[in-house]
């Protein structure tokens, strides 16, 4: 399987490292970066128009929400399936639908990995019957919220206890906190949609990892999933599980067993 990664940051480089360490049956044929003037041992591109020449089967984005549309359109048009990690891009009305239009025309797929989450299979299955409510709480250490609007909403360095600085819809959470709340759109797309899914964003001065608690109720029953994710050393905003989840998805596409 010919793989192209979009983004060579904390997640992208970790995905490549893990695939290599696990001898996954995958050829990394290119990486899309913003600055091609370096050597990582793989062909680098910075223009979506250059993607088709790499003949990818699968393109995996882990760059940022602005990368989703241009690289998604180029991937699907080039005959590759497209995986988006920066799912906050889908908080913008029409973005996902535009990608799905191109996917349909090219008989390709847009894949949304569970990323830092788990239990998305159960939530998406449960949503085949009516759901009454879905609530997703994200608790991260105070420093993980630095450089975001949370700095204006609370005194991150002066916190002595957990503080919820945002309580609203998944759409608004993903729009306002694109580096920390991509998962809001994953929960939303699996369940009740971006305007009916409730997000609570919490800074915790004592937390050492990123906690996700998803609670859902509906005709299927009730579910509650809690994950305590360790952050990636190279980016405390991102959970290590996100890279592992992408590796799982890639290996599932390349090997004979899907699990
Ligand atoms: N779906 C999920 O569960 C999660 C998603 N994420 C998202 O995944 C993405 C990657 O996260 P990290 O690797 O931790 O971030 P990072 O900041 O370490 O790396 C992102 C890299 O992408 C590059 N980049 C940005 N725009 C680009 C473009 N247009 N073309 C090529 N390269 C570009 C940056 O220069 C940087 O090297 C972010 O959008 C992050 O918010 C993060 C955690 C969980
Ligand atoms: O990695 C996480 O725990 C969640 C995250 O940053 C995101 O959804 O953007």
From TrEMBL:
UniProt feature coiled coil, ranges: none
Positions of the Aspartate dehydrogenase domain: 160-247
Signal sequence bounds: none
Residues that bind NAD(+): 116, 182
PANTHER family: ASPARTATE DEHYDROGENASE DOMAIN-CONTAINING PROTEIN, L-ASPARTATE DEHYDROGENASE-RELATED
Other comments on record: The iminoaspartate product is unstable in aqueous solution and can decompose to oxaloacetate and ammonia.
The protein's name in its UniProt record: L-aspartate dehydrogenase
Organism expressing this protein natively: Roseovarius mucosus
